[in-house]
Specification:
Layout: H1 7-18, H2 25-57, H3 66-110, H4 120-162, H5 164-212, H6 214-219, H7 223-272, H8 277-294, H9 296-318, E1 377-384, E2 394-401, E3 406-410, H10 417-424, E4 432-437, E5 440-441, H11 450-453, E6 454-457, H12 468-473, H13 481-490, H14 494-499, H15 517-531, E7 535-539, H16 547-560, E8 566-570, E9 582-587, E10 590-595, H17 597-602, H18 606-624
Parallel strand pairs: 3-8, 3-9, 6-7, 7-8
Antiparallel strand pairs: 1-2, 1-4, 4-5, 9-10
Helix pairs in contact: 1-9, 2-3, 2-4, 2-8, 3-4, 4-5, 4-8, 4-9, 5-7, 5-8, 5-9, 7-8, 13-15, 13-16
Bound molecules: adenosine-5'-triphosphate.
The site of adenosine-5'-triphosphate has 11 residues, from helix 10.
């Protein structure tokens, strides 16, 4: 990741972000000109009003003042109109651009391609506050900065019409206010500002850990330590922010002093060069107004310093290579289903709206499109290693999954089963070997199309703080009520939904917190069944269900899978596998046994041992069950 500290890193991050502004350049330039017009109207208003007041004191005939009176009114009204249209144009351009940036950042997060986004707090802060840094860079740095520079030049030009030496003094004052002071402000605040953004990110992660992990922290008696660490970070952040504020006030005070000194110097020089009294007054007030406008560059510079780290983090995501090293799916991204459209179903009771589709930078426009329906997935010699010095999580694995075939993968904990699902869904890129879908390299497909072809229920499926209907529609936007009912019935959740007062519109709570563990699992499973990808991946689909329910649910889910669709089941339970075409036993990433259930249950090895052990345990469980 490009660090936020270095000037060149900062500049390249800004360039990466600003490249996205190109389509809106016209609107942004328009907003900049309107901002300049606003400031210039303010400056001209002060100068004209001063001329009017001072001239009126000499009681000249009214017709000599008419133009100035009209000009004052026009400038006052014009300034308001310019300000309004500038805000409208600037925000319009920036909000359009921000939508693009958010979509891209989200696309990168949801495809799990960024190796640096493993934490949900971090991902959340990137999607929200870091992306706002892009908005601030344009609206609070570039547009006002450019406007102030332009008005400064115009002010010096205007002063030169009255007195050249006075214009020279004004130019020096403006350079000090608009260049030297901003540089000083940047120098004074950079070090603290570089520490503020990571600290804020750490506090966002603390907040999530302390709330989501509260029960576990309490269970291990670690609440006090975790709170103390978070408090320590919060206090450090407060100290830094106080320091930043103090430096800011000192620079602001220097700015006010500079405005007064410049105005005084302009008056002296103008008087010496014989400028008349009224015009000296105009120069003095105009100078005060012009320096104040130039001081906006101090605020812009300060803002720019604060934005550095956030911009670097966004740029890091925007420039993440398509697929490089093995990466885990970003937690909370909810797996591939999140490409679904916002459903707009009934009131979610304060629930999060589900996320919009991200355009997802595909590997190339020429990539083949993945149609709905059956697909043929094949793995040849696939090796995955999470770290260079670690043993492979998958070791030269071959797997053939033609249309309609059902393969179960079993094996001890850590054998590589979930890694296999990550590989076939494209979230982990193997170090060696090939994965093809219909004969074409998996990496050749646009990432946003893959979930429709290869997907389903992945490890730790996420249930959103939304209604049952919205959670389900994520799998297949636009599904009918009958389809919802069929998928929910297959997962054994339909009776529960029908018993709820709000039925499909029942809000399930944050992370499905208002459901039991089994209901949450069934809801996630129903979503996978509804999605009906051509290759249905089921990673421990019956986790958390009792043995009898597990067998029934697995059977009904398999029965609900459309003909021709293949199934890749990851399971630690060995019952219900009798009808599978192939069972692969993984151990340390290698396929150590392959065959159908009857063959494996008869042959000596891990499968037979495990099968006998589970049979005995479940017979005991069933005997004890009421
Ligand atoms: N994101 C990761 N980073 C580093 N190592 C990982 C990561 N995910 C898995 N591993 C390692 O890869 C190996 C295979 O893990 P994997 O989760 O695929 O096993 P599994 O068979 O699904 O295990 P379980 O049945 O316990 O879920 C393990 O040794 C694990 O420690």
């Amino acid at each position: 990741m490009s660090g936020g500290a270095g000037g060149s890193g900062r500049a390249s991050a800004e360039r990466a972000v600003l490249r996205l502004a190109r389509p809106y350049l016209g609107r942004l330039v328009g907003a900049g000109l309107l901002a300049a017009a606003t400031e210039f109207a303010g400056l001209a208003l002060m100068a004209t009003a001063t001329w009017l007041l001072m001239s009126a004191a000499g009681q000249p005939p009214l017709d000599r003042l008419t133009v100035a009176i009209v000009a004052v009114r026009a400038l006052a009204i014009g300034r308001g109109v310019f300000r309004y249209t500038e805000r409208l144009a600037g925000h319009d351009a920036v909000l359009r651009m921000i939508t693009d940036v958010r979509a891209r950042v989200f696309a990168t997060l949801s495809t799990g391609r960024s190796a640096t986004t493993q934490r949900s707090g971090d991902a959340l802060s990137r999607l929200v506050s870091d992306v706002e840094a892009v908005q601030d860079l344009l609206l609070r740095v570039l547009v006002p900065g450019a406007a102030a520079a332009l008005v400064g030049v115009l002010a010096v030009g205007g002063a030169a019409l009255i007195s050249l030496p006075a214009a020279g003094v004004l130019a020096v004052g403006l350079l000090l206010a608009g260049v030297a002071l901003p540089l000083l402000a940047t120098r004074l605040t950079r070090r603290s500002a570089d520490q503020v953004a990571p600290l804020r990110g750490a506090l966002a992660v603390d907040a999530i850990d302390l709330t989501h992990g509260a029960a576990d922290l309490a269970a291990f008696g670690a609440t006090g330590t975790a709170l103390a660490a978070a408090r320590g970070r919060a206090e450090r952040l407060a100290r830094l922010e106080r320091r930043l504020a103090a430096a800011g006030f000192a620079v602001d005070a220097a700015g006010v002093l500079l405005a007064g000194l410049t105005a005084g110097a302009v008056v002296l020089v103008a008087l010496r060069s014989g400028v008349g009294g009224v015009l000296v007054g105009v120069l003095a007030v105009g100078t005060l107004a012009a320096v104040e406008i130039a001081l906006a560059l101090v605020a812009a510079a300060r803002q720019r310093t604060l934005l550095g780290a956030g911009l670097a983090r966004v740029a890091d995501l925007l420039t993440t290579p398509e697929a490089t090293a093995p990466t885990a799916t970003a937690p909370g991204a909810g797996g591939p289903d999140l490409g679904a459209e916002r459903t707009g179903a009934a009131d979610t009771g304060g629930a999060t709206g589900l996320l919009p589709p991200g355009p997802g930078p595909g590997p190339g426009d020429a990539a083949p499109a993945l149609a709905e329906g059956p697909h043929h997935v094949r793995l040849t010699g696939v090796t995955v290693r999470y770290r260079a010095d670690a043993a492979p999580a998958l070791d030269r694995l071959d797997l053939d999954l033609p249309a309609g075939r059902r393969v179960a993968v079993v094996g001890p904990s850590g054998a590589g089963k979930s890694t296999l699902t990550a590989v076939v869904t494209g979230t982990v890129v193997p170090e060696r070997g090939r994965i093809t879908v219909d004969g074409v390299d998996l990496a050749g497909y646009p990432p946003e199309q893959l979930p429709r072809a290869v997907g389903g229920l992945l490890a730790e499926a996420y249930v959103f703080h939304a209604t049952v209907r919205e959670n389900l529609l994520l799998g297949r936007p636009g599904a009918t009520d009958d389809e919802l009912a069929a998928a929910t019935r297959a997962a054994g959740l339909l009776d529960w939904v029908r018993d709820q007062p709000h039925g499909w519109d029942t809000v399930v709570g944050e992370e499905g917190g208002q459901l039991s563990g089994g209901q949450r699992q069934r809801l996630a499973l129903a979503r996978a069944v509804l999605a009906a990808p051509g290759v249905l991946v089921l990673d421990e689909p019956t986790e958390g269900l009792d043995p009898a329910a597990a067998d029934a649910v697995l059977a009904s889910v398999l029965a609900a899978t459309p003909a021709g669709h293949s199934v890749l089941l990851i399971s630690h339970r060995l019952s219900g596998l009798a009808d599978f075409d192939e069972i692969v036993v993984l151990d340390a990433g290698r396929a150590v046994q392959r065959g159908r259930h009857a063959e494996l249950a008869a042959a000596p090895g891990w499968y037979r041992e495990q099968w006998l052990r589970q049979e005995a345990a479940e017979r005991g469980y069933l005997a004890l069950a009421p």
